[in-house]
Amino acid sequence: MATIAVILTNPPYGNTNASEGVEFALASTNYGHECSVFFVGAGVLQLMANQQPATQKHHAKQLKVMPFYDIEDCYACAASLLKHNISVDTVPIDIHPLTPDELRATLATFDHTVTF
Questions:
Q1: Which one, of 97, 105, 92, 93, lies nearest residue 78 by Cα?
Q2: N or C terminus: which one in the chain shows less Cβ crowding within 10 Å?
Q3: Mean predicted lDDT score pLDDT of the chain
Q4: In this structure, are residues 105 and 6 in contact, taking their beta carbons and an 8 Å threshold?
Q5: b/e for 77-111, b at 16 or more Cβ within 10 A?
Q6: pLDDT one-digit tens code per residue, 9-40
Q7: Three-state SS across the chain?
């Protein structure tokens, strides 16, 4: 089947784009596609620990189920992590930080790319 890169560029709360991106990634595996998730720009804010939303469901819980859907490769832009002062050691899931050049090279290996 196809390989799909889902790029998450939105913060977790304020709109539904982040949640819809994760749901798309989860659903894509139901059709036999191999999916990897990339957190880029403000999307790395989804990786912040100890978030307590007032009105929306907790986004980190959605991220934690990705391994159950065979989404095991999650990446984050190292420059975005640094910009938002997020440490890889504190995020709720296992991620691989990539430099911008590594990010471009990795994305080029996928059949399809979807950005949320």
A1: 97
A2: N
A3: 90
A4: no
A5: bbbbbeebebeeeebbbebebbeeeebeebbeebe
A6: 999 877 788 889 999 999 999 988 999 999 99
A7: CCEEEEEECCCCCCCCHHHHHHHHHHHHHCCCCEEEEEECHHHHHHHCCCCCCCCCCCHHHHHHCHHHHCCCCEEEEHHHHHHCCCCHHHCCCCCEEECHHHHHHHHCCCCEEEEC
Instruction: State CA 87 to chain mean position distance.
Output: 15
Please, which residues have CB within 8 angstroms of residue 53's CB and are 6 or more apart in sequence? Answer: 12, 13, 59
Structure tokens, 55: 């009105």
Residue 107 and residue 4 in contact, taking contact as beta carbons nearer than 8 Å: no
